[in-house]
């Protein structure tokens, strides 16, 4: 039996598409497609949409968001005793149903500070 008998015979190629400047101004980006899928009875959907729609245009608001929303899960820990790891507490932040929206909001605040204000954001990383 030969290896190439069991391998895929089709090859898929992917490439980036470049838009002209004139075409780019005509393109409308719909951000609602990447939101979590609508589930029947999802009572948090209005809150998700509200968090996604927040525009960061204030220097103080961006700083507050970067300070309030942690870069890493504060609950993840290794419990050590006499230099040996007894057990590991996994990150529980992903159990938060609004985790992705909060991380996205923090990222938008960091981008505002770095791109618009020209500030060094390494203190928040």
Automatic annotation (TrEMBL):
<protein>
    <submittedName>
        <fullName>Mo-dependent nitrogenase C-terminal domain-containing protein</fullName>
    </submittedName>
</protein>
<dbReference type="Pfam" id="PF06967">
    <property type="entry name" value="Mo-nitro_C"/>
</dbReference>
<feature type="domain" description="Mo-dependent nitrogenase C-terminal">
    <location>
        <begin position="43"/>
        <end position="125"/>
    </location>
</feature>
<dbReference type="InterPro" id="IPR009717">
    <property type="entry name" value="Mo-dep_Nase_C"/>
</dbReference>
